Amino acid sequence: MKNIAIFASGEGTNAQNIINYFKRSDIATVKLIISNNPKANVLKRAQESGIDTLVVDRNTLYESEELLRILKKATIDFIVLAGFLWKIPKNLIQAFPDKIINIHPSLLPKFGGKGMYGIHIHKAVIDAKEKQSGISIHFVNENYDEGQLISQHNCTIDPADTPETVAYKIHQLEREFFPKVIHKLLLTTA
Fold first, then answer.
1. Which of 14, 73, 145, 164 lies deepest, with the highest CB count within 10 Å?
2. What pLDDT digit, counting tens, does each position of 169-189 carry?
């Protein structure tokens, strides 16, 4: 059984979806939820599911080895970023090679990078008059949204769409595909 840590900064809908999916799994379980936001609803969701939580500050994430020690002690095998807004430090990337993934709510490389998250992306998609958007699931490297792509799933953008309707379409894709991609990766990683 593999242990997953989910890093999230906000509401935690993707985290909840992953928690629910792996409750029925015999290959993995969500063991730890980590957030940089002590008020994030994802922490409440984790507690309600009986999952340990940890709130990290910038010092813990970037200036010490404390988080790495915590992850190792918890025997974490795989890290999933589900709306985590801070960049992952090099020491974690090196300690978990090809075992940290992120979901991004656009078809990368379009609309990626620092500051491109949530409704900002969907507004940019509408403003650019894109015909399609979607999700990108990728490995994490030292740069925002530039890691090797694992999979992309798209949806059509209609002329009448708003950032909010695009967000709804993206959430449907996330809900359907993110846990399945994680499952498949866990089956293929040592």
1. 14
2. 999 999 999 999 999 999 987
Q: The pTM is what?
A: 0.95
Phi/psi for 47 (5° steps) reads -60, -40
Q: How far apart are CA 176 and CA 180, in angstroms?
A: 7
- Give the DSSP letter of residue 61: I
Please identify which of the residues 104, 122, 153, 183 carries the catalytic annotation.
Answer: 104
CATH code of the domain occupying 2-188: 3.40.50.170
Distance CA 137, CA 174 (A): 9
Helix (H) or strand (E) holding 79: strand 78-81
Ramachandran angles phi, psi of 142, nearest 5°? -75, -10
- Return d(Cα 122, Cα 130) in angstroms, integer: 10
Strands in 78-81's sheet, in edge-to-edge order, are 52-55, 28-35, 2-7, 78-81, 100-104, 132-139, 149-156
DSSP-derived 3-state class of residue 171: helix
What is the mean pLDDT of the segment spanning 86-109? 96
